[in-house]
User: Fold Adenine DNA glycosylase from Ploceus nigricollis.
Amino acid sequence: APAPPPARHLFSDPAEVEALRRNLLAWYDRCKRDLPWRTLAATEPDADRQGYAVWVSEIMLQQTQVATVIHYYNRWMQKWPTLQALAQASLEEVNELWAGLGYYSRGKRLQEAARKVVSELAGRMPRTAEDLQKLLPGVGRYTAGAIASISYGQATGVVDGNVIRVLCRLRCIGADSSSPAVIDQLWDMANVLVDRSRPGDFNQALMELGATVCVPKSPLCRECPVKQHCRAWRRKLFGKAPPVPDIEDCGVGDCPLCPPATEPWDSSLGVTNFPRKAAKKPPRAMRTATCVLERRGCHGAPEYLIVQRPSSGLLAGLWEFPSLPLAQDLQEENEREELADHLQAWMGQPVAAKGLLFIGEVIHIFSHIHQTYVVYSLHLDGDVTLDPALSPSRWVTEDEFHASAVSTAMKKV
Ligand code: SF4
Assistant:
């Protein structure tokens, strides 16, 4: 078994843990942001509805800024205020409301899980983190801990990106913070720290601290309610020769939580020496040809063809202009020809590559893909019969396009 990490990285002094909880919760009570899911969770008397309200917010907040989520959250809760209402929604409605929020499988899985709660669990949310994670598709360890602590008072910690940053700074953890060994340590730490009488507030306070004070760049250490417990802050104050031995690195090379010997403390970075991550793989480059097919609708207004993507994979089930992934090194004239062939399969009639008008390129960065859309347009005069054997497709006006379940990338196109 691996040796336990040195105590200097842990919270092993009960008095210090108690003081940290007290200081953090007092700050949270004074400074917490007014957010719609907090109001709902605090005022909703029904435990299942309360769990649902927290669950929706936690899923939306994954990889997404609070400011972006608020609008989507309010619309979602207005449309589907209960699990039962969500269970009856169609995937198309869910995708339409989610359009623009990114990571679209989140909405789909939320709806699948709501159906499961209604049909298999009699509409009752599981009450513990263990059961939430086991029984609900799309609910991982973090979301389960958040729902269980905030809605059901279970004294269980949570670890998300904000918590990782705060804990790594509080305890000078400089080993790769995305490695399983460090993540396991952080979960253990979060479970030690969580306040037994106010676990939900404590977890939210720790995340709030990471989101508003202990931010990635230029953290506001002077205003920080837990600075007296922060080893990174003390190390910054005392520089290279700390007077207290336990804030030094444990020793070169043999501590599983210290920065690697090849990347020692950089005094110009201060507390932002922590956390550290192994370098990310650069996103994969992809090129996709896409064609905006336009026709005159029956009222004379232009209409555009959109087609539905497959029900799994990237942007599953969303609508887009007919698109075709391209090989990286294809010449422009070959791109046109491939796209023309692709369109011909849709329309069941020849499409001249020369008729495709090149409009420009649109770049969109997905989390792991650097996507370039090569955009063409084509105006159609006569009537076109689309092949019903292919994916679902429909003609839409510009307004209908914007109200459809289309991705942000397609809106850019
Ligand atoms: Fe973060 Fe600075 Fe507070 Fe430490 S003192 S927890 S680095 S904001």
User: Anything to note?
Assistant: Residues 166, 169-170, 213-214, 219, 221, 224, 226-227, 230, 232-233, 271 surround iron/sulfur cluster (CB under 6 Å). The chain has two domains: 7-273, 284-403. Confidence is low (pLDDT under 50) at residues 241-247.
